[in-house]
Specification:
- By secondary structure, this protein is α/β, with parallel strands linked by helices.
- Helices cover 31% and strands 18% of the residues.
- The protein has 15 helices and 23 strands.
- The chain has helices at 29-40, 57-60, 81-86, 96-109, 199-208, 235-253, 273-286, 302-319, 323-329, 347-350, 397-400, 412-415, 449-469, 479-494, 524-539, and strands at 17-19, 22-25, 45-48, 116-117, 122-128, 133-138, 143-146, 148-151, 173-176, 191-195, 214-219, 225-227, 342-344, 356-360, 366-369, 373-376, 379-382, 385-388, 403-405, 427-428, 431-436, 472-477, 542-546.
- The chain has a six-stranded mixed beta sheet, with helices on one face. A five-stranded mixed beta sheet has the order 1-7-6-5-19, with no helix packed on it. Strands 9-18-10-11-14 form a five-stranded parallel beta sheet.
- The structure holds ligand NA7.
- Ligand NA7 binds at residues 156, 162-164, 195-201, 218, 220-221, 340, 361, 366, 389-392, 445, 504, 509.
Length: 553
C-alpha cells in the first residue's frame, strides 16, 4: 500500500492511545471477513468482539435445535476457493455446533483470532473532524484511533428485553435463547416454559418437547413454518458441489436472494387451481424455502398470498390431532412470508405429544412472571425452567447500544430518531469513514447474509483503497444520495405485503421503536448493482475530503 499522509501503522504511543488504520467491531461472519480482507490489504487493524470467541450469532445461540435455515453450501464463505475445497458439510442445513466448527476452521485457517480482542465491548466511537480519525473507547478503558471504523455488529445481536413484568422474581432457571450456556442443559422430568414462537422458539420447542417432563409453549403470534426436510450430505454430492462451487456462487451472487434457490416469476393466477395446488404440494414436499419461490407475486398480491397461507393452514390441520390446538397454531391476520418463514422438523407433530401444551396468549395473555412461573389471565403455570425466545432489537439495536458521534457532535441516536437512514446500508451521511456491513436499508434479512457481508466488506475495502491511493482523508454519502436511496427503499417497500405483519423487520417488536420496513427489497442482485453504481466515477455523489493534516503516528 502506497504511503500517504494518513496514519499507516500503529505503534504504542506515549499517550496510551493505539493508532491503527482500521477498527472493526464484531466477530461474526462480517467481522471475520473484514479482518481477513483488511489484513490482506496490509492495513493495521484491531477487531473487537463482546463474546469470548468469533462466531457472532452462532457463538451466542447454542440453544437445543439451533440450526441455519439456508442450505449450508449457500450459507458459507465464497471468497476462498481453498476453504471451499477443504471444508465438508455434513448436513444440508447445518446445526449450530457444525457452524461453529466451520467458523473455527476458517478462523484458524486464516489466523484471524490474533486480530481480535474478545470479551471487549466498544463503548464509544467519536469522529475527530480535524484529524479525520475515529476515536474508539472500549469497556476495558483502552483508546484506539483509526481513520476507518467498520461496524460489523450484525442485524440480530442484541436480544430484545421482553416486556414481561416480574421476570426477576422467577425462582426457577431463566434462560435466554440468545445467551445460551456452553454446558448441556438437562430438561428430563422438568417443567419447561418457552415464550416466543419465531424461528428460535420453533427450533427449541421441537427439540425440548421431546426431552422435557412437560413443555408449556407461550405463543402470542403463531408463525408459518414449513418442513425443512434436512438430509445428510453424501460424500459424492459434496464432491460434486466442490467441483461446481464457482458456478453455484455465481448463481447466488446474481440472484435476488443471494442464494442458489430457484425463484419463479410465474404469477399465482396465471395457472389453474389444479396446477397451483400441484406446485404448492411439490414445494411442500421439497421442503426448505421452496414455497417462497413457487410464484413471483406472493408478496404483492394479497389474494394469491392468502391462498398459499390457507394451503399451509390446511397442512397444520392435517398434522395436529387436537382441533383446538390446531386452530390456535394456524396463523391468521397477516400475510404468509411477511414474517420470516420458519423451517421445522416435526414442529407441529410436537403438539401431539401428551407432555406438550400450547398456551395461546392471544386468548389468554401473559400477565406477569411470578416466583413459580408464568401467570396468564386464566391462572399460573408453575415452571422449573423458563426459556425466552423473544427475539432481537433487530437491525439498529447493536449500533444504538453505544455512543457513535459523527460530524459536528451529531449522534447516531439523533440521526435515527425517526428510523434508520443510511446509504446502501453501508454508510451514513454525517459520519465520515464509518461503514456498516449488512446495515439497515440494505437487503439485511431478505438475502443471504454471508453473500451480503462479503459484498459490503469488498465495497468498503474498495472505497478505503480509493482514498488511500489518492491521498484523500474522508468519504461520506452526500445528503442527496442518502435521501435518494431512502426514497427508493421506501418506494419499494410501500407495495410489499411485508409491511402488514408486526415483526422485527419493521421494528414492531420493540416498544417505542420507529416503525416501517427499512430494508431494500429490490433483491441482492439489484443491490449489488446499486453498490457498483455508487462506487463509479470516483464515488461521485459522495462528499470526499482531502487529507486535512498529516497525522503523527
Ligand atoms: P422473532 O422472530 O422476533 O420471534 C420472537 C417471538 O417472541 C415472537 O413469537 C413474539 O411474538 C414472541 N414475543 C416477544 N415478546 C413477547 C412477549 N412479551 N410475550 C409473548 N411473546 C413474545 O425472533 P426469533 O429469535 O425467533 O427469530 C429471529 C430471526 O432469527 C428470524 O427472523 C430468522 O431470521 C432467524 P409476537 O410476534 O411479538 O406476537
Amino acid at each position: 500500500m502506497a504511503a500517504t499522509a494518513l496514519p499507516q501503522r500503529s505503534r504504542p504511543a506515549d499517550d496510551g492511545v493505539t493508532r491503527l488504520d482500521v477498527i472493526i467491531v464484531g466477530g461474526g461472519f462480517g467481522g471475520m471477513y473484514a479482518v481477513y480482507k483488511f489484513n490482506k490489504l496490509g492495513l493495521k487493524l484491531q477487531a473487537f468482539e463482546s463474546g469470548n470467541d468469533v462466531g457472532g450469532v452462532w457463538y451466542w445461540n447454542r440453544y437445543p435445535g439451533a440450526r441455519v435455515d439456508l442450505p449450508s453450501i449457500d450459507y458459507s464463505y465464497s471468497f476462498s476457493p481453498e476453504i471451499e475445497q477443504e471444508w465438508t458439510w455434513s448436513e444440508q442445513y447445518a446445526a449450530q455446533p457444525e457452524l461453529l466448527r466451520y467458523i473455527d476452521f476458517v478462523a484458524k485457517r486464516l489466523d484471524l483470532r490474533r486480530h481480535f480482542q474478545f470479551n471487549t465491548r466498544v463503548d464509544s466511537a467519536v469522529w475527530d473532524e480535524d484529524r479525520q480519525l475515529w476515536t474508539v473507547k472500549t469497556n476495558r478503558g483502552d483508546t484506539f484511533e483509526a481513520p476507518f471504523c467498520i461496524m460489523a455488529t450484525g442485524p440480530l445481536s442484541v436480544p430484545k428485553k421482553p416486556e414481561i413484568e416480574g421476570l426477576d422474581r422467577f425462582k426457577g432457571r431463566l434462560m435466554y435463547a440468545a445467551r445460551w450456556p456452553h454446558e448441556p442443559v438437562d430438561f428430563a422430568g422438568k417443567r419447561v416454559g418457552v415464550i416466543g414462537t419465531g424461528s428460535t422458539g420453533i427450533q427449541i420447542v421441537q427439540e425440548v418437547g421431546r426431552q422435557a417432563g412437560e413443555l408449556f409453549v407461550f405463543q402470542r403470534t403463531p408463525s408459518f413454518t414449513m418442513p425443512m426436510r434436512n438430509v445428510p450430505i453424501e460424500p459424492e454430492y459434496m464432491a460434486e458441489v466442490k467441483r461446481h462451487y464457482a458456478g453455484i456462487r455465481e448463481i447466488a451472487r446474481n440472484s435476488a436472494i443471494g442464494g442458489a434457490r430457484p425463484l419463479s416469476t410465474r404469477g399465482f393466477f396465471t395457472v389453474t387451481p389444479g396446477q397451483r395446488l400441484a406446485l404448492l404440494e411439490d414445494s411442500w414436499n421439497q421442503g426448505g424455502l421452496a414455497m417462497l419461490g413457487t410464484f413471483g407475486d406472493l408478496m404483492i398480491n394479497e389474494e394469491a398470498n392468502e391462498h398459499v397461507a390457507e394451503f399451509v393452514r390446511g397442512k397444520i390441520g392435517e398434522v395436529v390431532t387436537d382441533p383446538s390446538t390446531a386452530e390456535s397454531l394456524k396463523p391468521r391476520g397477516y400475510p404468509i412470508f411477511a414474517r420470516r418463514p420458519c423451517l421445522d422438523t416435526g414442529y407441529y407433530e410436537t403438539y401431539n405429544l401428551p407432555n406438550v401444551h400450547l398456551m395461546d396468549c392471544l386468548t389468554d395473555p401473559i400477565l406477569e412472571a411470578t416466583e413459580k412461573g408464568i401467570r396468564t389471565a386464566s391462572g399460573e403455570t408453575e415452571l422449573d425452567i423458563l426459556i425466552l425466545a423473544t427475539g432481537y432489537d433487530g437491525l439498529t439495536g447493536a449500533l444504538l447500544a453505544f455512543d457513535v458521534v459523527g460530524r459536528d457532535g451529531r449522534t447516531i441516536q439523533d440521526k435515527w430518531k425517526n428510523g434508520p437512514r443510511s446509504h446502501l446500508g453501508i454508510m451514513l451521511e454525517g459520519f465520515p469513514n464509518l461503514f456498516m456491513t449488512t446495515g439497515p436499508n440494505g437487503p439485511a434479512a431478505l438475502a443471504n447474509i454471508i453473500r451480503m457481508s462479503e459484498n459490503d466488506v469488498d465495497w468498503i475495502a474498495d472505497a478505503i483503497t480509493h482514498l488511500r491511493k489518492n491521498g484523500l482523508g474522508s468519504i461520506e454519502p452526500s445528503r442527496k444520495i442518502e435521501d435518494d436511496w431512502m426514497e427508493l427503499v421506501h418506494a419499494l417497500a410501500k407495495n410489499s405485503l411485508i409491511n402488514k405483519a408486526k415483526t422485527w423487520w419493521v421494528g414492531a417488536n420493540v416498544e417505542g421503536k420507529p416503525q416501517g420496513l427499512t430494508q431494500f427489497i429490490g433483491g441482492f442482485l439489484k443491490y449489488r448493482e446499486h453498490c457498483a453504481a455508487a462506487a463509479a466515477n470516483g464515488y461521485a455523489g459522495h462528499q470526499i475530503e482531502p487529507v486535512r493534516q498529516a497525522v503523527e503516528v
